[in-house]
């Protein structure tokens, strides 16, 4: 019974870890609710009034939300500086409250400075948020000069309680966070294997649904891998350990994606395109059915289940003879042992299972140290030797040169500050026409739609989501206010629930976050005895006005069009893709070892920024359907390119120690065409050369004199896998030319570009 209970708890823990990697959203919600509850408790014990309670609760929320640094020491400094900033802000608001013109002018200046402060990094962003939000709190509660001492006390209590929750009650250490992210990666890896197993068993109409699950699982695994890599340096004891974990995470991710692709290929009549795993809504390949059940397909199903078992038992302190037996059997496929008699495509899937089993073993060794080797078979022992040799070949991380920063009005923070100042001025003027008491809601909305946005399209989509969440939240606020009535502590309890929901859903949906915030505001109005349905309707009107002012300023004041923003980011992605490809090919050709994994991570980060920037173009309500489909297709092709480049980088990293990979100088010349094509596309996107075209030509195997290829000997000078990755990368780059209107070079081979 206890074992069953532990099993249920383990499964629930895995699901929670997979849905909230690192428990980051849960931690944010608990900190927010805990600091608010502690603030209210301390203030209540001291006999504070409702106005102080509301001021303290809202400030505690601001103090939690504004801290962005990852290091605990930096968080403490920002929190300490935030208190005097908050006190100065609320004092100025109280002093200027009777001087309408001066108050409005100062508010605009404060907004400009708060946004401009983003150029100073996370601390500048946090202090700017505190200054603006506390000023808004003072307007909301109607702070006066006479009541400043009580409000100062409430602010001090709020900041003190936030510090207690952050550093004592719900602390997050770099090592602890990395451990939780590792568990999330393991859980998501197991979920992806489960989705791949479902793809194996799917039939008929279920194939497309199963493929969609594999696609989603692959994207979630990649997201977690990036989160881990961004926190490695702070969560590991030294740079060498960080680099080792980074390598193992990259290997596990690449091997999982390769397994999905080869499984999809085994289901189809011809080779599956990697794009199928990256393009949302792409149908499964033709003839998407496995052969009739036989010993080979039964063995494949068994081995996928075994692989999932190995992944699920890859946590610290978990082991046993049965798991070792599973691992040994799967690893034997890497040495061509025990491969069933079946089609070459199906045998590739078995080999991929062996490679992924090795990646899981390598990841566990990197995270947990040496393991019990008493049950090792010769194949397992060879895999361990390879891993040890690779670990010994790790080089020191290279320092990246700082990027050149834009100046003047071209600097994003300066431009955004000017835009917000103009939009807020319009919001103040229009808001006061609607209401002399509620105009600050229009300013708040105008401010919020500019946070974490870079282009007019992003601001337009965020404004729409803010308004939708506010409308729905008003309805919820009316219902909750009616239920609560005059019960103060019931209202505060519901506020805590809504605050947790707001913090937990903020990274997922801006609409949901706006909904919970607006519903909470309805309760705040009830506590301040200013509630009426007219007030909430006015809240909607002010929000709509603020959103309109923000959009107006974004479109007319120093605008950054979505197309311009996406083109800039596209150029960055292509530049990073060139760097990774050139460096990997150079190392595979016998060049010096460089930091390939960091360059691959920079490519992934650039692609993530591009993906976020194209969301306005791919939004479901966009009327430009053709542009939406083109944006999705281009991003999917770039994700395919990034996968192939990551695979090349991971293979090149193995070069110093792996017996089946040896340098081949011919690769440098063979891959030059692909690199030139990437540069040509980048120049066309940047508007530098509208006449240059991409080149096509013979396969890489033929350029290498016919050696290699898919049937290359496992111990040849260059593995077939490297050639396949180069071929797929070349095809994806040529595929990019069509949607980006890059012509084919006039060499009479136009048909080749259509492949």
Automatic annotation (TrEMBL):
<feature type="transmembrane region" description="Helical">
    <location>
        <begin position="540"/>
        <end position="560"/>
    </location>
</feature>
<keyword id="KW-0812">Transmembrane</keyword>
<keyword id="KW-0472">Membrane</keyword>
<dbReference type="InterPro" id="IPR049453">
    <property type="entry name" value="Memb_transporter_dom"/>
</dbReference>
<keyword id="KW-1003">Cell membrane</keyword>
<feature type="transmembrane region" description="Helical">
    <location>
        <begin position="32"/>
        <end position="55"/>
    </location>
</feature>
<feature type="transmembrane region" description="Helical">
    <location>
        <begin position="151"/>
        <end position="179"/>
    </location>
</feature>
<feature type="transmembrane region" description="Helical">
    <location>
        <begin position="510"/>
        <end position="528"/>
    </location>
</feature>
<feature type="transmembrane region" description="Helical">
    <location>
        <begin position="76"/>
        <end position="96"/>
    </location>
</feature>
<feature type="domain" description="Integral membrane bound transporter">
    <location>
        <begin position="427"/>
        <end position="552"/>
    </location>
</feature>
<keyword id="KW-1133">Transmembrane helix</keyword>
<comment type="similarity">
    <text>Belongs to the YccS/YhfK family.</text>
</comment>
<feature type="transmembrane region" description="Helical">
    <location>
        <begin position="471"/>
        <end position="504"/>
    </location>
</feature>
<dbReference type="Pfam" id="PF13515">
    <property type="entry name" value="FUSC_2"/>
</dbReference>
<feature type="transmembrane region" description="Helical">
    <location>
        <begin position="127"/>
        <end position="145"/>
    </location>
</feature>
<protein>
    <submittedName>
        <fullName>FUSC family protein</fullName>
    </submittedName>
</protein>
């Amino acid at each position: 019974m206890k074992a069953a209970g532990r099993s249920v708890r383990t499964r629930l823990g895995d699901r929670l870890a997979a849905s909230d990697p690192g428990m980051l959203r849960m931690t944010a919600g608990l900190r927010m609710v805990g600091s608010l509850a502690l603030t209210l408790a301390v203030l209540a014990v001291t006999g504070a009034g409702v106005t102080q309670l509301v001021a303290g609760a809202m400030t505690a929320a601001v103090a939690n939300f504004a801290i962005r640094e990852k290091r605990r020491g930096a968080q403490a400094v920002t929190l300490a500086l935030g208190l005097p900033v908050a006190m100065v802000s609320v004092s100025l608001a109280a002093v200027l409250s009777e001087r309408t013109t001066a108050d409005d002018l100062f508010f605009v200046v404060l907004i400009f400075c708060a946004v401009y402060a983003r150029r100073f990094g996370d601390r500048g962003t946090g202090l700017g948020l505190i200054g603006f939000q506390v000023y808004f709190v003072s307007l909301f509660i109607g702070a006066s000069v006479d009541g400043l001492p009580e409000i100062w006390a409430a602010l001090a209590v709020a900041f003190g309680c936030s510090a207690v929750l952050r550093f004592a009650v719900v602390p997050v250490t770099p090592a602890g966070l990395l451990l939780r992210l590792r568990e999330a990666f393991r859980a998501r890896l197991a979920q992806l294997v489960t989705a791949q197993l479902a793809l194996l068993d799917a039939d008929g109409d279920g194939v497309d649904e199963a493929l969609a699950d594999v696609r989603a699982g692959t994207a979630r695994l990649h997201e977690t891998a990036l989160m881990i890599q961004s926190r490695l340096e702070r969560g590991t004891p030294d740079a060498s350990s960080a680099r080792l974990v980074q390598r193992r995470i990259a290997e596990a991710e690449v091997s999982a994606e390769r397994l999905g692709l080869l499984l999809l290929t085994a289901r189809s009549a011809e080779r599956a395109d990697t794009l199928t795993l990256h393009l949302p809504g792409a149908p499964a390949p033709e003839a998407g059915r496995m052969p009739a059940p036989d010993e080979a397909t039964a063995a494949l199903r068994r081995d996928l289940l075994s692989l999932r078992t190995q992944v699920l038992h890859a946590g610290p302190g978990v082991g046993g003879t049965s798991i070792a037996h599973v691992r040994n059997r799967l690893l034997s496929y890497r040495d061509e042992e025990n491969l069933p008699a079946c089609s070459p495509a199906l045998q590739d899937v078995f080999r991929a299972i062996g490679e992924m089993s090795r990646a899981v073993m390598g990841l566990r060794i990197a995270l947990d140290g040496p393991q019990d080797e008493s049950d090792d078979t010769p194949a397992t022992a060879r895999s361990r030797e390879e891993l040890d040799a690779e670990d010994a070949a790790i080089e020191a991380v290279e320092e990246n040169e700082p990027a050149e920063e834009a100046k003047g009005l071209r600097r994003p923070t300066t431009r955004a500050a000017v835009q917000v100042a103009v939009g807020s001025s319009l919001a103040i003027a229009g808001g006061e026409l609607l209401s002399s008491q509620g105009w600050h809601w229009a300013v708040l909305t105008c401010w919020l739609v500019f946070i974490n946005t870079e282009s007019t399209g992003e601001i337009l989509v965020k404004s729409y989501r803010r308004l939708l969440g506010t409308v729905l939240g008003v309805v919820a606020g009316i219902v909750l206010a009616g239920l609560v009535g005059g019960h103060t502590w019931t209202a505060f309890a519901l506020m805590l629930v809504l605050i947790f929901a707001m913090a937990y859903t903020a990274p997922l949906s801006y609409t949901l976050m706006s909904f919970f915030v607006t519903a909470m505001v309805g309760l705040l109005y009830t506590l301040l005895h200013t509630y009426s349905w007219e007030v909430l309707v006015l809240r909607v009107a002010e929000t709509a006005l603020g959103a309109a002012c923000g959009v107006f300023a974004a479109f007319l004041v120093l605008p950054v069009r979505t197309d311009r923003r996406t083109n800039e980011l596209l150029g960055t992605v292509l530049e990073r893709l060139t760097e990774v490809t050139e460096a990997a090919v150079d190392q595979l050709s016998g060049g010096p070892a460089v930091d390939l994994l960091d360059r691959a991570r920079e490519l992934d980060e650039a692609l993530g920024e591009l993906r976020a920037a194209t969301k306005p173009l791919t939004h479901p309500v966009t009327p430009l359907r053709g542009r939406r489909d083109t944006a999705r297709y281009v991003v999917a092709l770039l994700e395919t390119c990034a996968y192939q480049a990551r695979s090349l980088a991971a293979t090149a990293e193995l070069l110093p120690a792996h017996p089946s990979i040896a340098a081949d100088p011919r690769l440098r010349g063979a891959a030059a065409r692909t690199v030139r094509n990437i540069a040509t596309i980048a120049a066309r996107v940047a508007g530098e050369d509208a006449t240059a075209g991409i080149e096509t030509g013979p396969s890489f195997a033929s350029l290498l004199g016919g050696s290699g290829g898919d049937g290359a000997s496992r111990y040849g000078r260059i593995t077939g896998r490297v050639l396949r990755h180069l071929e797929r990368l070349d095809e994806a780059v040529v595929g990019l030319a069509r949607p980006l209107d890059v012509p084919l070079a006039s060499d009479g081979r136009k048909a080749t570009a259509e492949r």
